[in-house]
Amino acid sequence: MSIVKRTKKKGYTLLRKSEKYFGTDMVYLTKGSFWLFAVQIFSGLASFIMLIAFTHYVSKEVYGTYRYVLSFLGLLTVFTLPGLNTAINRAIARDFDGSLKEGLRQKVLWGFLGMAVSFCISIYYYINGNDTLAISFIMLGLFLPIIESVKLYRIALCAKKLFKREAIYEIMFRAVSLIVMVIAIIFTNSVFHILLVFLGIQAIVKGFFLYRVMRTLPLNERVEKGTVKYAKHLSFMNVIAVLASQLDKILIFHYLGAVELAVYSVAVTPIDQLRGVVGNIRTLAFPKFSNQSLHDIKKTLLNKIKKLELVVLVIVVVYIVLAPVFFKFFIPQYLDSVIYSQVLAVYLLFSPRSLITTVLNAQKRVRELYIIRIVGPAMRIALVFPLLKYWGLWGAVFSVLLADLFLYVFYVIIFRRIK
Questions:
Q1: Which band of pLDDT confidence, cut at 50, 70 and 90, is reported for residue 130?
Q2: Arithmetic mean of pLDDT over the chain
Q3: Distance from C-alpha of 47 to C-alpha of 67, rounded to nearest angstrom
Q4: Are the beta carbons of 77 and 242 closer than 8 angstroms?
Q5: pTM, whole model, 2 decimals?
Q6: Is residue 13 part of a domain?
Q7: Is position 3 within any domain?
């Protein structure tokens, strides 16, 4: 037996033995996570290079304005039936592949509603004499139905557990996006041109991947009844959550200005990248949770979350220690972002509780999802207004931490009570 085969065999045996401690299928997790974490590493590197390009070649005013428009991109997704992503994932994981085409059709149709809202925002800024934002929101509206629809290729690949192919596509997208965006950032200081490049890459590259998936993936025509209805439930309950996730950035721009939003955005960018690691685990877990009974999941999930939190704690401590060095050498223009980023790192400790939401989505627990999706984000919205008004950027930071601490406790209570 060759050295490679012996190593694989020993690794397989070690993973199987470790299942007694972790209480999960470690072979499946390792196979899937290898590609997902490869994407995470590449995405983190790409975001890092992009951030350096922005901080070196673009003014804080332009970068803050750019991030403000992207915040609205996140907000306008509520009009594109975002719950379809989860509903289609669940349907395909249960061998109802025809739901992909129906989901694509619904995405495009609902996207036109988001386009109309974006155009209304554009009119508001035009009336108030801000041509830059007026043009930006027209462009945002035109691209919205397209870029939200083409994302479905990732949903199909993940539901089919084709993590390698999904990872390769995502790395290709990140590579193309990085090259073109950096060129745009270096040669222009215009919000409009940078935004046009960003949206254009999304539409063209991801559109091509969706075409490839639908042409090459062996998909049946079965459509699960109730998928669109379930997607509407998920979308409606997520309205407040999406608003809460973007409200801090929108308020910072309006009350403190584009420069302060740039400082805050730079502080939160590394944290968002680290949160993506937990997001990978959710991606891997969803197909499994969809085909397991709630009774079996409840036996082990909270214990798994606790063990995951210990891993996250190590990451948080390392980040807090290294953040000043990282900013000093790579982003010296934003040294005032360091302290905010260090405190926001604590936010990562609450990330593992999102596995509870994954279970509720996979098990189609609509009532519990409504409670979680409304109460938690409502708390964050209630906190961000007064805290931001009296403490500026620190108010935005503390609103995130306090709201997620509340959510963590709330999620656990809800999970323990479901039957």
A1: very high
A2: 83
A3: 14
A4: yes
A5: 0.79
A6: no
A7: no
The answer to the question of residue 99 being in a domain is: yes
- Helices H / strands E in the chain, number of each: 16, 0
User: How many structural domains comprise the chain?
Assistant: 1
CB 30 within 8 A of CB 15: yes
Which structural domain, as residue segments, surrounds residue 44? 23-417
Residues above pLDDT 90, as percent of the chain: 37
Q: Which helix (H) or strand (E) holds 53?
A: helix 26-57
Tell me the one-letter amino acid at 381: I
Both tokens assigned to 16: 């199987």
Q: Is the pLDDT of residue 252 over 60?
A: yes
Alpha helices for 128-190 (secondary structure H): 131-150, 152-159, 163-187
Residue 102 and residue 226: Cα distance in Å, rounded? 12
Does position 29 have pLDDT exceeding 70, yes or no? no
Task: Burial-class residue 330 by CB neighbours within 10 Å (0-12, 13-18, 19+).
Answer: middle
Contact 132, 165 (CB under 8 A): no
Asked if residue 10 belongs to a domain, the reply is no
pLDDT of 389 higher than 80: yes
CB atoms < 10 A from the CB of 365, how many? 18
